[in-house]
Amino acid sequence: MDEIFKQYGSTIITVLAITAVIGIITLVIGKDTNSIVYQAFSDLIRNFYSGAGGVVPGA
Predict the structure, then answer these.
(1) Is residue 36 part of a domain?
(2) Is 59 contained in some domain?
(3) Which terminus of the chain has fewer CB atoms gathered within 10 Å of its CB, N or C?
(4) Residue at 58 is within a domain
(5) Exposed/middle/buried for 21, CB within 10 Å: 0-12, 13-18, 19+?
(6) pTM here?
(7) To 10 degrees, the CA torsion angle through 33, 38, 43, 44?
(8) SS3 state at 38
(9) C-alpha to C-alpha distance for 44 and 50, rounded to whole angstroms
């Protein structure tokens, strides 16, 4: 077990950190279109496209 951590310790820590960040982002943003943060990003993108004179996909 000690040898595994010597060889792969930094890789294991990196994978755990990335997994934790993804988990936190999923909790904050949510998994569906009803979350507050998702709606805010959606409105932001929609306003950006309409302000730039572009066509908003899916609207």
Answers:
(1) yes
(2) no
(3) N
(4) no
(5) exposed
(6) 0.52
(7) -150
(8) helix
(9) 10
